[in-house]
Amino acid sequence: MRIGMGLNSSTNTETLRYMAQLGVQDVVLNTPPVPVKNGKWELVDLVSLKNRVNEFGLTLTAIENTQIDMRHHLIAGGPRFDEQLENMVETIRNIGRAGIPMYTMSWRYPRFYRTGHVDIGFGAQGTAFNADVEDWPNVIDWELTRERAWECLQTWVKTATPVAEEYGVRLGLHPVDPRFLWSEACRSCCSISKTTSG
Amino acid sequence: MEPMVAIHGQGGDEVLQTAVQYGIKNILVYGGPGTRHMKFQEYVTLRMRIESFGLKLAAIEGGFSPDLNYHDVIFGGPKQDELIEDLLIQVRDMGRAGIPIYGYNWMPNSWGRAQPTIIRGGAMGTGYQYDWENDRRPKTFGEDMDEGTMWDALEYWIKAVTPVAEEVGMRCGIHPEDPPVPQRGGVPGLFRNMAAFKRLVEIVDSDYNAIEFCQGTFSEMPGEDIYEMIEYFASRNKVMYVHFRNVSGKAPAFNEEFINTGYVNMKKAMRTYRDAGFTGNFIDDHCPLMVDDTDFPGNLGGYRSRLFAQGYIAGVIESVKKEVEYGGPVDMSAAGKGASS
User: Fold this and answer.
1) What string of DSSP letters covers B286-304?
2) Whole-complex ipTM
3) Could you say which of B21, B258, B290 has the minimum Cβ distance to residue A122?
4) For position B163, which CATH number holds?
């Protein structure tokens, strides 16, 4: 077991050097700043991302999430579903070609969020979620049924898993946080594909 | 056994608030008797300020020995009695103000280092090389000082201060010579080995004549076994509190390391304190200088560096305490397996 550390939307020198000094070996990049080209991440950009982390003596162990607009139709069954499916599968191929061994994502749209903060003593704050107070934003302008949402997830897992196996990338889903609305979908994912790449 | 944060007396609210947020209850303040008298009321005010955060002022650490005005206390001399009388007034004031522990040292040259070392990830740890320093350091008092005279003066002081410490209920203890070498600038390093501390605690056999146990320095002592020294002094209730830091090796040449990369097995050390019946506190003491760190109102190291050490100390304390609770070493791998299945 080793200690990993996450870095969100950035690969800044200060933080990577800080990780190296802390004795961290494994870095997990969440939504790294890889340019989106024609809806995909290209191999050349993923290789330079990996090199960037390796420069500090660290290992790029996993990527969590691509930019959300690469995959919101995929997750929420939008009109560009097929296009985004194809692009995301190609992105998985490129992640594998670049030698990055894991890709995980949050299967929800919108992503992770909270409704506020609460004081937990002496000025420290913890994030909080309260479903009652949430003023739900309207984020999609197409119809989405529960059945369609399931279908999207199944299509993704069944299409992406063989590719991931071939290219040596383990795929995983983050549990839905807050555990609300999409939580059933996440549980189902594990039952759809029980291979190591699932 | 609990962690403790060490700060300068003038540290603002931020550092005390940080201690509360870390979940640490004990505060050590650098200060104590010296040329500038802190009066009884000032000690009370300091203690109450810390208590207002729900924290405890568990110790004051400092030392008058590097102050040239106290030369005659360290080496004996015409003003010895007069200066000791003055110091004892200050010790009484501290004790009466509710300070439970006073850690000091017997190092007229203070502590010292030579060239620093680049350690993990480009961080910087202090370093020491005896020859390097010896070639450059002039004689502090223009001549070699006599070790026997220093011991005589020390004994005189211990016999004077211990009854006062007992009377006001404040434990006093001495920090080892850091670096633990025979002399620096012609001044003998009295507390450079285990034998010196055995001699110290035998001058007056009392819990109030004890040791400010800088484990970092003890582990720098050539020819000594760190675990044996912990066991010996902790089981005799001579350890007031611990400076829990790690080093690459022993004098004459060593450098300070991150707490989990030095040569000392910190978990084994913590088990040794536990098994010897030690119940006091642990400070991080010195931390390496890390990238873009933020100033911390304390000893070496900023907030980042200190956070790493404090988190580590809290983790080691918790794990060795739980070993007792569960009746043996805890198999942490079970938790990992559960999470990944």
Assistant:
1) ---B-TTPPP-SSSSS-HH
2) 0.73
3) B21
4) 3.20.20.150
